[in-house]
What we know:
Shape of chain A: globular
Number of helices of chain A: 16
Largest interface: A-B, 107 and 107 residues
Largest sheet of chain A: 3 strands, antiparallel
Strand content of chain A: under 5%
Strand order of the largest sheet of chain A: 2-3-4
CATH architecture of the largest domain in chain A: Orthogonal Bundle
CATH superfamily of the largest domain in chain A: Citrate Synthase, domain 1
Oligomer: homodimer
Structural class of chain A: mainly alpha
Distance between the termini of chain A: 18 Å
Order of helices and strands of chain A: EEEEHHHHHHHHHHHHHHHHE
Low-confidence stretches of chain A: none
Radius of gyration of chain A: 23 Å
CATH topology of the largest domain in chain A: Citrate Synthase, domain 1
Mean pLDDT of chain A: 94
Amino acid sequence: MTSNENIDLSQYPHIDRGLEGIVAFSSRKSFIDGAKGELIYAGYNIDDLAPKSTFEEVCFLLWHERLPNADELKSLHADLQSNRELPEIVENYIKSTSPKSEPMAVLRTAVSMLADFDDEARDVSPEATYRKSIRITSKIPTIIAAFDRMRNGKEILKPLSEGSLAFDFLYMLNGERPGKQAEKVMDMCLILHAEHGMNASTFTCRSVCATQSDLHAAVAGAMGSLKGPLHGGANTAVMNMLLGLDKGDDIAAFIKERLAKKQKVMGFGHRVYKTFDPRAYHLRKMAGALAKEVNMEYLYEWSETIVKVMKEEKNIDPNVDFFSATVYYSMGIKPDLYTCIFAMSRISGWTAHYMEQAANNRLIRPRQLYLGEKNLEYKSVDER
Amino acid sequence: MTSNENIDLSQYPHIDRGLEGIVAFSSRKSFIDGAKGELIYAGYNIDDLAPKSTFEEVCFLLWHERLPNADELKSLHADLQSNRELPEIVENYIKSTSPKSEPMAVLRTAVSMLADFDDEARDVSPEATYRKSIRITSKIPTIIAAFDRMRNGKEILKPLSEGSLAFDFLYMLNGERPGKQAEKVMDMCLILHAEHGMNASTFTCRSVCATQSDLHAAVAGAMGSLKGPLHGGANTAVMNMLLGLDKGDDIAAFIKERLAKKQKVMGFGHRVYKTFDPRAYHLRKMAGALAKEVNMEYLYEWSETIVKVMKEEKNIDPNVDFFSATVYYSMGIKPDLYTCIFAMSRISGWTAHYMEQAANNRLIRPRQLYLGEKNLEYKSVDER
């Protein structure tokens, strides 16, 4: 006898559909207009924020739902600068990893470990959560850079603890102070990836928070979601697709061949945006200027060719992953770090959503429908 | 201008309600009948499993949705025995923690770190996931015991790699082979906590899995949820309530006073069970026998008094947390480890749900309703 004989699954419209279409949260953190191609962070259009603001300012905006005044911004900069160093044991852990270790797994473990060294780790008050948000945001660039130096046999660098997070990250990664253009490009990448509504990792962050668990637990959970290929892993996939190519190759032919073979062209289309992803628009502008500066114009030309072919052949537009991949690559950053850089930015959105969830909390727990048997007779193992 | 002026929130019945009542998944892993007080794991009632089965058998049941035959069970035992040792670097991490570290945070970090040493960490195929489920399940008891020994200044013990997980756990924790009664009690605790429908940590596990992320990521996320006081932290709270008492105290008066002061009596009532929690029924029987064996009958008598007073005064029954707390305590286990022991058992349910989600996957992502402003004008920081 199976117990599901009489179950009419059509009576459960949401079953196994990933909660699609269920409006589960109210939020003041961000708004996406997919038809218009518009993205707003707490009232401000990213078309203004990307060229005019900074990542630090965007952190403040997402956390406080308003822009900081000059004193507040200065104070946040100081806090973010003074918290960049890692506890020795976390650095030792990073040193103990191998080049085979997965960057996102190392980042998740290191952030989880930070809880051991944070006196407020268990304190879920709004004040402690805010201070922890700053500390975690500060330390993520240091973790990523330390891991990448270590696996390349280079000395791990202490942060300069000056300038922007983008500046210190590039310094720790490359061992030299970045130029103004590189810093601005990295900063704009951080701005553009900071927040994007109820994506899968943000949803995980809120779900963990809702048990009244702490921020380190919620962020480690979110990082687990972000690393999935259906979420944050896409920009790495874009670059891996391009890396098989050579300078002289016919890019248009390559893409058309992929399409003919029904292979996926990474970095195109988006579940929400039905037009040009506004983040891709800003990244595209940067990609051009940057490629010129570092003598990798071929990479930008490839990108433009691919965008053109995809529009002609399939009428779909690039998403944020497409141009961020080539931007990071022309900055000399290895493709398998791209998801980590995504996390380094999205930490601002995760922590903002944690704060919002905690302020109006309810345990997040949908139901399941049992389709199995119910009355099986237990026999001892010898009788099976 | 606020953009939410015209939003009718009543049109969004699910908003900020924690997805309550939404049937989001189908599952063959477990069924709870809250009215009857019945819990079924993949067809078998826990009233049969608790006294007759073993935790290893329950792992097999949850993973395969059928009970093993003698050969399969033998083979699973062998696999679970041979995978208990920790990589040296994970053990070194545990040695580097301090007695102030939170046990659930250390367990989460250590499990996350295991990914670095698992050659199949990134492989999300069903076969690799199954093998990783065994490896993680094997190693959790070793992590918990190592942490507890270390923080008490005792030498960390290697697993004996024989007998049941319950046996080796108690050996590594206490430094001596447990007696038959203690092993059976611990094993039954593991059986009773193994799986419980779409609870918050299992939901987190499935959400992380749904991005096609790997098992270590999903389990680390689930552990973040489990540690929350609204989820797995409750049995620790029960014991902390009792620890303030002395042998001669009038327990009935203590409980009545708490009720009069509107203080919460931990370990009573359950969102799902409207009658006696079937898990509490089995734990209660064990608690009596065990208390006698270890000369802590006063603890069992306290429990019975509290159950009686709560029934008389409030007509509510104890839940699984109430008796598991006194059972663990009479086994000499410190209260702040109880949530870790919960995780040591629930890993079977988490991994089973990961397998089920991956086999019929869809990204889990509800929507949010934006209530903030939309058209704020960006002014430079000096103008704010």
